[in-house]
Design brief:
It is built from seven helices and 30 strands. The protein is an alpha/beta fold. The chain folds into three domains: 187 residues, FAD/NAD(P)-binding domain (3-Layer(bba) Sandwich); 129 residues, FAD/NAD(P)-binding domain, CATH 3.50.50.60; 100 residues, 2-Layer Sandwich (Enolase-like, domain 1). It has a six-stranded mixed β-sheet, with helices on one face. α1 runs parallel beside α6. It starts with 8 loop residues before the first strand and ends in a 16-residue tail after the last strand. The C terminus is likely disordered.
């Protein structure tokens, strides 16, 4: 960078949670140069989790979800304009309005967008929605408030399940069509997804698993859908919740290791080029990043999690303005949460990086439990249902590569309720109609790993 690392020009592409937290961290670290944040939406950074919860329930307006700023990042905000290309040799970000922004360092934080319904004509029917942006949530909330006869949700992942929960809380009839064997199976595995099946059905959801939607019907207005088992669902609102698409198309031909799975980077958030060589002026953070994690077999992880976006953005910003010896790795253990059908589901670690599970506390019947996941004899994840206070204990087991199953004396001091382990039954993502919130795209190691923990 011009002068030293604390001067020069930094461009952040993505006015997202990760983009905002990175901008704030840059200033907190002492960066005094020019800072520009580019965003394709016309709004300042806003919070996405409330969109599928409070906004759909009518408890909050979509335009009231703005993210609070820890401090003014003193940035030039280029909102409502899309980045169309990156020129690493010329160190420029190309914009849709024809302008280009010079940089000394650039952060890619373009995140994801909702996967659209593949048939464009059917997707354009009035009453067909996706849920990702503030505008998406405002439009869908308005339609739900009007009291539709029935809502069809395509996809039983976290977003689809939260939408179904909001519909039932509003008293709206809802059908969920999921290609896989159960809701949430792609995130939590087959054993815990049995709880999800019971939750949906106990709350009156018309749950259809093992089927796909073959066509959306309507003449201008959505009226229903055909399913692969020959049945038809009559509804006047359809929400396509088939996962996310990582926003990497604008990086085509720029020489980076970017593709449908995200932008590959090292543990310090520096992007790889297409030959696997690390760059030193292009950084990545948030949902669009693919990064290795020593706790999970150095798998390349792609995470669509709020906490990961914050932690990774802070690491990326720190490393952008600090010399090599002072740089640090992104080693945060992934966490996420979901609120649906009156239950709070929280996770730590990577449940899909597992081969066995054990119920450490509670039970499926009680709908209050802690389930611990293991891979090749060590703890890799834990999921709690209405038992979140236990997660800190299980996180320490993950971070120290504790043996699986965990020994007597779980988080509450009592012995395991059962010593019988079960297969975690993680499905192939190809079997799901929704994308996984965690994508593992590296090799599967066959040896015990040495754990690297951050210091300081």
């Amino acid at each position: 960078m011009a002068g030293d690392l604390w001067e020069g020009r930094i461009v952040i592409v993505g006015a997202s949670l990760a983009g905002l937290r990175a901008a704030e961290t840059l200033r907190e670290e002492g960066f005094t140069g020019s800072l520009t944040v580019v965003g394709d939406e016309p709004y300042p950074p806003y919070d996405r989790p409330p969109l599928s919860k409070q906004v759909l329930l009518g408890q909050a307006a979509a335009d009231a979800t703005g993210l609070p700023m820890r401090r003014d990042p003193d940035a030039q905000w280029r909102l409502g304009v899309r980045a169309t290309g990156l020129d690493p040799p010329g160190k420029r970000v190309l914009l849709a309005d024809g302008e280009s922004l010079p940089y000394d360092r650039v952060l890619i934080a373009t995140g994801t967008r909702a996967r659209p319904w593949p048939n464009e004509r059917e997707a354009a029917l009035d009453g067909v929605f996706t849920l990702r942006t503030r505008d998406d949530a405002a439009g869908l909330a308005e339609r739900l408030a009007a009291g539709p006869r029935r809502v069809l949700v395509i996809g039983g992942g976290f977003t689809g399940s939260e939408i179904a929960s909001a519909c039932r809380e509003r008293g709206i009839e809802v059908t969920v069509a999921e290609r896989g064997p159960a809701p949430l199976v792609g995130a939590l595995g087959g054993t815990l997804s049995k709880l999800a099946v019971g939750l949906h059905r106990a709350h009156g959801v018309d749950l259809r698993c093992g089927v796909t939607v073959t066509a959306l019907r309507g003449n201008g207005q959505f009226t229903g859908a055909d399913l692969s088992d020959g049945s038809r669902v009559d509804a006047d609102v359809c929400v396509v919740a088939m996962g996310a698409v990582r926003n990497t198309e604008w990086l085509v031909d720029c020489g980076l290791a970017a593709g449908p799975r995200g932008v590959a980077c090292d543990a310090g958030c520096r992007a790889f080029n297409m030959y696997g060589i690390v760059t030193d002026d292009v950084f990545v953070a948030g949902d669009v990043a693919r990064f290795p994690h020593p706790l999970f077999g150095y798998q390349m992880l792609s995470l669509e999690h709020w906490g990961n976006a914050v932690a990774q953005a802070q690491v990326a910003a720190h490393n952008m303005v600090n010399p090599g010896p002072r740089r640090r790795p992104h080693l945060a253990v992934p966490t996420f949460w979901s609120s649906q059908f009156g239950l709070n589901i929280k996770s730590v670690g990577v449940p899909v990086f597992s081969d066995q599970v054990v119920i450490a506390q509670g039970s499926l019947d009680e709908r209050r439990l802690a389930m611990v996941y293991g891979y090749q004899g060590r703890v890799t994840a834990a999921v709690t249902v209405d038992m979140a206070k236990s997660l800190e204990y299980y996180q320490s087991l993950i971070e120290t590569a504790a043996p699986f199953p965990p020994g007597p004396g779980a988080a509450d001091g009592r012995p395991l309720l059962t010593e019988f382990t079960l297969p975690s039954d993680v499905p192939d993502p190809k079997e799901l109609s929704h994308g996984p919130t965690v994508a593992l795209t590296g090799y599967l190691p066959d040896r015990r790993l040495t754990v690297v923990r951050p210091t300081g």
